[in-house]
Amino acid sequence: MIRLLAFRNIVHRPWRSALLFFGYGTGVGVMIVLLSVGEALLNQARDEKLVGGGSITVLPQGIDVEVMKTGGVGGLYFSIDHGRFIYDQLLASPRLAGWIAAAAPQIDSRVVYLRTAGGEEHVVRASGEIPAQAGKVGSPLSLASGTWLNDEGDRRWVDPTLEELRHEIDHFHLPPDGIANRESWAEWHYFNVLSSDRKRWAFISYIVAGDVSGDKWGGNLAITLREEGGGGRSRKFSRYFRREQVRFSTTHAHLQLGMSTVQVRPDGKYALRAQAREEDGTAVVDVDLVVNPTPRAYFPGASLGSGDLVSGYTVPGLRADASGTICVDSVCERFDAAQSYHDHNWGIWKDVSWDWGASRAGAYTILYGRVLGPEQRGRETPLFVYLVDSLGFRAVMRPRRIDYMDGREIFVDGVRIRVPSRAVFADVRGSDTLRVELEIEDAIGTDMRRQGAGPSPFANREASAERGDPGRDAETDKPYFIQMKGIARITGRIGGSRVDGTGSGFFETFR
Question: Among 71, 98, 439, 446, which residue carries the largest CB count within 10 Å?
Fold first, then answer.
């Protein structure tokens, strides 16, 4: 009956019925829109806020901002690796002083677990800022009461002393849990120094090796003195130390091997003392050097792990000078602000090879390298090229390959080996270009299959004492470790400015 009455009313008054239908439909549509807007406002009110302050927010490459805002799984643990280095060498660097007035690191709304003295556990959200820096970018926190000022930790993060910076990036490490071949762990300070006439140089390594979490480990001091010309001459000195004679720390860069030491002075310079006996001889070398890294010319470090390969590397002194003496018996050579270099390596090296080099090039300094483990063998692995100038970090390039021209010959244990006379690599990244040409002036080789002698925790390390132990297999296709000295020439354009420079450096590869 109701349906019949409704139908007859529509037929009797069609225009009035149409107007009523239109009004009802419009009202429903407006209500739907209002409810949708209200729901959107409610979701936005519940949304995770982005880190505020400043004109630009810097986030890791590839991060999904929406996932990060809504607290999705992909946004749980995002971080910017080497945040302090990015702050110091990019955002707060003199190079960008005309563009960036202030920069502030912030950690926003991270989940942490708070445990009370009574054992109760609470899930809370915590944020972290450096008060003074947050104020400079206009993003200070609202304080209910009291004051919030930079403490000593904030000061060290924003503006560490040179000594604090050295300890931060140059301290020692322990082998990670769960890795195989712990007895192959090795870590070392490496220094080199070049005479003013570029004809004599020294490689100096302070090595800790073996499973330092157990009993079978110790120390090794290895020094190679090389003289170019007349066929070249190398003298190798070494000394081994029981673990009771070794002192290292996971919080600072100091190292003691008996009476041989590496000490970071309050002014950030490295004081080296070392004494070792010549292999197959009686001569004694005595090293007394102070190595002074150039400000802002450092590589903060990188660590990689793949299969049995665990490798860490940092360069506190990419461009440095050394002063002091190196004496063999009573004959001493004096170095005054001589070209020098310092890096620090750690990890497990088994059946590994690499290409590596560090060189000055006029006002620039370059570092390049790649590590080739068993998984990378036979595959094209790009180089990593790191460029600095007087203002610090300048660019990173990734050439796909390095082309060697084997135009020199040397003898290794009576075997004739062809080694590079030149090398070239280049890369183009957007509008940036870089080409590096190496001219090799001297090369020495070591057969990495050669076994060490005598009871020590360094079996297979004597052959590669200057640069650690890659643990070469007797069947490897490139058993010879080649250390070279030469000239590097760089050309290109970075950031719209021309790059051009030439200088001396040291390079390594395998044959």
Answer: 446
Mutual angle of helices 14-46 and 2-12, in 10-degree steps: 110
Cα separation, 169 vs 75, whole angstroms:
28
Rounded Cα gap, residues 156 and 164, in angstroms = 8
Tokens of 485: 């000295």
Report how far residue 293's alpha carbon sits from residue 114's, in angstroms, rounded to the nearest whole number: 42
Predicted pLDDT at 371: 82
User: Which residues, other chains included, contact 354 with Cβ-Cβ below 8 Å and sequence gap of 6+?
Assistant: 369, 370, 371, 372, 470, 508, 509, 510
Q: Taking CA 249 as the corner, what is the angle to CA 244 and CA 255, rounded to the nearest 5 degrees?
A: 65
At residue 123, the pLDDT reads 87
Question: What is the H or E stretch that residue 194 is in?
Answer: strand 185-194
Residue type for 406, please?
D
For residues 198, 446, 205, 227, the Cα torsion angle rounded to the nearest 10 degrees is -20
| pTM of the complete model beyond 0.70 | yes
pLDDT digits (tens, 9 = 90+) for 311-326: 889 999 999 999 999 9
Q: What confidence tier does 217 reach under pLDDT thresholds 50, 70, 90?
A: very high
Which has the closest alpha carbon to 165: 266, 17, 76? 266
Q: Where are the domains of the chain?
A: 65-158, 162-510
What is residue 241's predicted lDDT score, i.e. its pLDDT? Answer: 96
Q: From 272, 275, 276, 207, select the one nearest 246 (Cα to Cα).
A: 207
Q: What are phi and psi of 57, to 5 degrees?
A: -105, 125
474 with 309: CB under 8 angstroms? no
How far apart, in Å, do the first and last CA atoms of the chain sit? 100
